[in-house]
């Protein structure tokens, strides 16, 4: 039996397990079975918390999409994972350094359920050939960024009624091979409305790494603030020196166990 906890960050839901209490081997079959919302538990991503691979990190965390593929990063998930670690007394209620497949982040507790995450500024993706292919299929302004996951952002005047699945389907042959998430957004002053189709998952209520990337594109000066709103809730981003500070909520739902 595998012990798990169910969490969500702004509606982006996760099953969290660890190999600290007991050695667990993660397989694609187990991930898909657990992800099934009718016959399993159901989640956007499975989070696997393990001991660090280097002394400079406190924990090593992996993220798996519901289709069994592995994601490089999930910022809604990293907040939930940090709270999971503190709640289960794997580390004191203080700053922790977490290594993921692609990034190293520092998480710190805020109040009873929120978490601050400090992360380096996302990088622009330089891929002229891909940009040309996208330009032929959409007429809107867009940009590409990476923060451990690849993201494509398309700007609209309104996003509520846009067929996001249709846009992803139209672009999938070009962006899926790059494991690229697709987001559409609307910006009004310091508020950004965002919807995201996550590669290997589909549209989610919130995507933390997409929220970070789109906010970073408009954070130019130290102490600038951007609030990103999704169907699942809000995340606040602040520019600090050469990094960005994200503040967002976490919610524990329930815990249980499931057959391996």
Features:
globular; 260 residues; 5 helices; Diaminopimelate Epimerase, Chain A, domain 1; 18-stranded mixed β-sheet; alpha+beta
Descriptive account of the structure:
The chain is α+β, with helices and mostly antiparallel strands and 260 residues long. The protein folds into two domains: 2-117 and 248-258, Diaminopimelate Epimerase, Chain A, domain 1; 123-247, Diaminopimelate Epimerase, Chain A, domain 1 (Roll). It contains five helices and 18 strands. It has an 18-stranded mixed sheet that branches. Helix 1 (28-35) links the parallel strand 2 and strand 3. The record marks 254 as: Important for dimerization.
So what's the CATH class of the largest domain? Alpha Beta
In helices, the fraction of residues equals: 10-25%
Shape designation: globular
Most strands sheet: 18 strands, mixed
Which regions contain 5 or more consecutive residues with pLDDT less than 50? Answer: none
Q: H/E order of the elements?
A: EEHEEEHEEEEHEEHEEEHEEEE
Q: What Rg, in angstroms, do the CA atoms define?
A: 18 Å
Average predicted confidence as pLDDT: 93
Query: Which structural class is indicated by helix and strand composition?
Result: alpha+beta
Number of E-type strands: 18
Quaternary state reads single chain
CATH fold title of the largest domain: Diaminopimelate Epimerase, Chain A, domain 1
Distance between the termini: 6 Å
Protein name: Diaminopimelate epimerase
Keywords: Amino-acid biosynthesis, Cytoplasm, Isomerase, Lysine biosynthesis
GO biological process, one term: lysine biosynthetic process via diaminopimelate
InterPro entries: DAP_epimerase_DapF
């Amino acid at each position: 039996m595998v012990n798990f906890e169910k969490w969500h960050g702004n509606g982006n839901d996760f099953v969290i397990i660890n190999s600290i209490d007991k050695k667990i081997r993660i397989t694609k079959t187990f991930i898909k079975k657990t992800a099934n919302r009718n016959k399993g538990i159901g989640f956007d991503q499975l989070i696997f918390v393990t001991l660090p691979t280097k002394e400079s990190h406190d924990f090593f965390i992996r993220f798996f999409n519901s289709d069994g593929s592995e994601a490089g990063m999930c910022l809604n998930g990293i907040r939930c994972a940090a709270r999971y670690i503190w709640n289960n007394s794997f580390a004191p209620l203080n700053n922790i350094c977490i290594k993921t497949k692609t990034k190293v982040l520092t998480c710190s507790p805020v109040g009873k359920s929120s978490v601050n995450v400090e992360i380096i500024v996302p990088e622009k993706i330089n891929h002229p050939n891909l940009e040309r292919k996208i330009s032929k299929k959409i007429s809107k302004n867009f940009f590409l960024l990476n923060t451990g996951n690849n993201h494509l952002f398309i700007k609209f005047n309104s996003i509520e009624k846009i067929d996001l699945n249709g846009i992803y389907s139209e672009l999938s042959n070009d962006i899926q091979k790059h494991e690229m998430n697709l987001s559409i957004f609307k910006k009004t002053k310091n508020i950004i409305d965002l919807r995201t189709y996550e590669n290997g998952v589909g549209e989610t209520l919130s995507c933390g790494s997409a929220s970070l990337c789109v906010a970073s594109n408009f954070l130019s000066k130290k102490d600038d603030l951007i609030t990103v709103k999704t169907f699942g809730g809000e995340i606040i981003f602040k520019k600090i020196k050469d990094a960005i500070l994200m503040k967002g909520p976490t919610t524990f739902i329930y815990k249980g166990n499931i057959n391996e």
